[in-house]
Amino acid sequence: MTPGKTKFESALQVRPDDLDMFRHVHSSRYMDYVLAARFDQMARCYGVPMEKFLELGFGWVVRTAHLEFKRPLGLGEKMTVRTWVDEITSDSVKVHFEIFKEPARKLACDGWCLYTMVSLKTGRAEPIPDWIAAKYAV
Q: Which residues contact 29 (CB under 8 A, 6 or more apart)?
């Protein structure tokens, strides 16, 4: 299925426990920001909250992640995480993202993640049902 590539945004803020010894956001936290935004957007924008996937016996795992850091985020800074579905295959969804520093809207990080749908019972990849692919194809 070909996605429409509609971009959705979530607002987040840097917390004290996000910082590393250099007093800026640790690189691993950017992935957390993307996951938090996707969790929000799955319910709010796509109409399929993570709880629905769990109820159906499905989960999502990150198969591949690519992040490019442009500028650091610091304590208390606000950010906008923008994501969009770029590709849908039989068992995976490729999601691109951009993280902007606010209020200047300067790009802090961008990249993409390949999420694979798995069965919670077996831990193995599962085909994405057509109705889910249709929801993500906006």
A: 18
The single-letter code of the amino acid at 111 is G
Q: How far apart are CA 121 and CA 108, in angstroms?
A: 38
pLDDT along the chain (138 residues), means of 10: 88 97 96 97 96 96 98 97 97 98 98 98 96 92
In DSSP terms, which residues pair with 112 in a beta bridge? 66, 96
For the chain, helix, strand, coil in percent to 5 are: 25, 40, 35
What pLDDT shows up at residue 2? 73
* Domains of the chain with bracketed CATH: 8-132 (3.10.129.10)
